Amino acid sequence: MPSNNWLRLPASDDMTEASVATISPDNRGLAYGDGFFTTMGVIDGRILWSDYHHQRLISHAKALQLKLDSHSLLTTLQGHAQQLAQGMLKLVVTRAVQDVQGYGYTPSTSGSACEAWLKTFAMTLNTGKQLPLSDGRFIPVQPTSTAVCLSSKIACLPSSLAGLKSLNRLDNVLASGELQRMQAEPLAAGIVTRLDEGLLRDMSGNWVEGTMSNVFYQLSEPTPSININIDAPNYLTTGQWYTPSMAQSGVAGVMRQVIIDALSDTERPVVIRSLQDEDLPRVTQFFFCNALRGIMPMSSLRLLSGDIVDFAPI
Question: CB burial class (10 A; 0-12, 13-18, 19+) of residue 104?
Fold first, then answer.
């Protein structure tokens, strides 16, 4: 059954069973953001995109120099998914408490030891519309909504940290607060609208991602654009899709990689391309995506100037 408590899971050889525990203020994830997290959707007792989440466990543990038994941990997570049936698993991995004070950690086995924490959430995932992939899996597609460019910015990071879903997310917290305020304004005025996401720049001025999602877009071409029917199986393979680079900022999300891989052997693989101010009026198709909600298509984007860019109907 879903738990209201955080569970400490076996993460390495020093622990064999899960246990209910209270996270101490000494925890390095709480104190320094020393760790990473991932959120996994669960349907019919199975973790969605479990192979991609497994790769995240491996790559993030390597990047942060953590000793993590990713295979055993994933097996444990799958057991919790079976109990949950449908909903979300949130996994947080932190470096173990260190003997040295401050930010540092010892260059030894104890320095790379980590702790894994799990909380389960029972919820219904919207999978009304789905796009089939060549491997037999499906990407959920949410109802079309609108987005806005936010004034908040996200940090540019060193290459060793860029793209990681680390616990250092304060810039996203502030950006999400800005979006929440914008969402509340029309509701307070009695206007019903679907403002679902906000587009974020990094400190260099490139538009990179949403507050909780990655971005894919198409640009106007010399030839007339084709209206895309999102119910058609070739929605993703119609036109050239671009996505911003994660080389200096943003989170390289699971669903982003699923889509890149799905189109890698087609006539038009995804192109990694920066998205700048002058590009926005030329955008003809636009969607956000993440591992829980799948594809979130947008019908329009409000720019910082207040102008609205409308996208081709789907």
Answer: exposed
Q: Tokens 């956000």 appear where?
A: 288
Q: Measure the CA–CA gap between 199 and 211, rounded to whole angstroms.
A: 7
User: For residue 207, which amino acid is it?
Assistant: W
User: Distance between CA 227 and CA 204 in Å, rounded?
Assistant: 33
**150-207 pLDDT per residue, tens:** 999 999 999 999 999 999 999 999 999 999 999 887 655 455 567 899 999 999 999 9
> At a CB cut-off of 8 Å and minimum separation 6, what does 21 contact?
6, 7, 8, 117
Selection from 115, 119, 99 nearest residue 107 by Cα:
99
- State the first-to-last Cα distance of the chain, in angstroms, to the nearest integer: 39
DSSP string, 156-197: ---TTTTB--BS--HHHHHHHHHHHHHHHHHHHTT----EEE
Task: State the average pLDDT for the chain.
Answer: 89
Residue with tokens 């994933």: 74
Q: How confident is the model at residue 135 (pLDDT cuts 50, 70, 90)?
A: confident
Give the predicted TM-score (pTM) of the model.
0.90
Say if CB 286 and CB 149 are below 8 A apart: no
For the chain, helix (H) and strand (E) counts, in that order, are 6, 17
CB atoms within 10 A of CB 224: 7
Strand partners, 263: none
Distance of alpha carbon 302 from its chain centroid, rounded?
22
Residue with structure tokens 């079309």?
144
DSSP-H helix ranges across 4-162:
28-32, 50-63, 70-84, 109-112
305: left (phi over 0), alpha (psi -120 to 50) or beta: alpha
Task: Enter the tokens of residue 187.
Answer: 């509701």
For the chain, percent helix, then strand, then coil, each to nearest 5? Answer: 25, 30, 45
Give me 186's structure tokens: 């029309």
